[in-house]
Each structure stands twice: as C-alpha cells, then as structure tokens.
Write a structure and sequence with these properties.
The complex is a heterodimer of chains A (about 120) and B (about 110). With about 120 residues, chain A is mainly β. In chain A, the strands form two sheets. In chain A, strands 2, 4, 5, 6, 9, 10 and 11 form a seven-stranded mixed β-sheet that branches. A four-stranded antiparallel β-sheet of chain A has the order 1-3-8-7, with no helix packed on it. Chain A is globular and about 40 Å long. In chain B, about 0% of the residues lie in helices and about 45% in strands. In chain B, the strands form two sheets. In chain B, strands 2, 4, 5, 6, 9, 10 and 11 form a seven-stranded mixed β-sheet that branches. A four-stranded antiparallel β-sheet of chain B has the order 1-3-8-7, with no helix packed on it. Chain B is globular, with a radius of gyration of 13 Å. The chains are: A mainly beta (about 120), B mainly beta (about 110). Chains A and B meet through strand 5 and strand 10 of A and strand 4, strand 5, strand 9 and strand 10 of B.
C-alpha cells in the first residue's frame, strides 16, 4: 500500500525558511516522480513543484521559483521542499503527491502538513 | 497560463440522484502525444484529494462505475450517478497538458 507522510510544517515569520519532508513507503520510490501541491485555507488546490524519479529534473510554479527548492533522497525514500523567503501568501496545507508512472497526474497523496507564515 | 473553470461552484444533490460537473479550459488540452491530460479528484471533508478519473474517462483503481468522465478539447464533464453519502465533498479537475492547473472546485452537498 502506498503511504506518504509529510512533516516539518509550522508557524514561521515572513522572510524566514522552512523545510518540509515527505516519507514514502509501499512502492519503489526511485521509480516515481514526486510533487508538492498546496491548499490555502478555504481555497482550492495549487501545484507547487515536481521532481523527476532520479532527481535530475525539477519544475516550479512561477510564484515560488527562486524561493523554493524541491529535492529527494532515494536512499531514504524521502522528498523535501526547502522554502526560503516565505511570504504570507505561502500559508497553506502542503501535500506530498506521487506522480503516476508517466508523470501526467498525481495518483496518491499524503495527509498534508500546515505551514503558517505570520509575524 | 491555462485557466480551468469549473461550474457550478456549489451543487446541491439528493442521495440516489445524478449530477454533472463541468470543467472548461482556456486552451485545448490535446497534447502533442495525442492524449488529453484532464483528470478528476475528490476531496472529502478533512481529507487529502483522491484520484477518481485520469485522462478524461479512465476510472482509477477502486473507483465505482457510478463515476464517469467525458469530453474533449476544452470541454469536460464528470457525471456521478446514484449519489451516495461518501460522494460528498469538493471535486477538482486538473489539466497536465500545459504544466499543471487545477480548476477552482465544485462542492457537492446535500
């Protein structure tokens, strides 16, 4: 059974940094691309970033380019999202999601971790 | 950027009834590979999203046949027949032909 669990969320001041982790189990982690999707309170879903199965390719939405970095450690079955220069508009629940084999959609999601950016 | 418009925003339903949700894109979602990368998710209250339909009309593993997807080009529909209590929540479409954009969501409620 595919299992994804996020951690690392919390309250952080504007301009500071936070690093999220997503621990994966139940599948061969190194065979799949991974992603982060966020949801601001009472709002819809927003794709944030994706990383290829080997980690060699990364993709970001424009609003986080240069501030967020997605990475992965296939030896630890874990992906990460380093978030720098955080803004109030980054406040959201961040979901870890697995790309299906060809990468076109997300087939499994974690329960999410909440990030609040506020002074 | 691709704009995904879902209608209606809110959809009252009676248990056992049938409903349709529309998702329209600002550009054609036909990819150069010939496929149309439009997918549907359900987010139940307090839960993370779950995949229902991928590439317009393919039901994901374990999804009952009460759910069906159709459409082409820029116009897509999710139909739910014989609505059950566990179908309540917010439905989202996702396009992945041109990067990834979600629709704004449709709340299915009693």
């Amino acid at each position: 059974e595919v299992h994804l669990v996020e951690s690392g969320g919390g309250l952080v001041q504007p301009g500071r940094s936070l690093k999220l982790s997503c621990a994966a189990s139940g599948f061969i982690f190194s065979d799949y691309g991974m992603a982060w999707v966020r949801q601001a309170p009472t709002k819809g879903l927003e794709w944030v970033a994706s990383i290829s199965f080997g980690g060699g390719s990364t993709y970001y939405r424009d609003s986080v380019k240069g501030r967020f970095t997605i990475s992965r450690d296939n030896g630890k079955n874990t992906q990460y999202l380093q978030m720098d220069s955080l803004r109030s508009e980054d406040t959201a629940t961040y979901y870890c999601a697995r790309h299906e084999e060809l990468g076109w959609y997300f087939d499994f999601w974690g329960p999410g971790t909440m990030v609040t950016v506020s002074s | 950027d691709i704009l995904m418009t879902q209608t209606p925003v809110s959809l009252p339903v009676s248990l056992g009834g049938q409903v349709s949700i529309s998702c329209r894109s600002s550009q054609s979602l036909v990819h150069s590979d010939g496929d149309t990368h439009l997918h549907w998710y359900l987010q139940k209250p307090g839960q993370s999203p779950q995949l229902l339909i991928y590439r317009v009309s393919n039901r994901f593993s374990g999804v009952p046949d009460r759910f069906s997807g159709s459409g082409s080009g820029t116009d897509f529909t999710l139909k739910i027949s014989r609505v059950e209590p566990e179908d309540l929540g917010v439905y989202y479409c996702l396009q992945s032909t041109h990067f990834r954009t979600f629709g704004g969501g449709t709340k299915l409620e009693l």
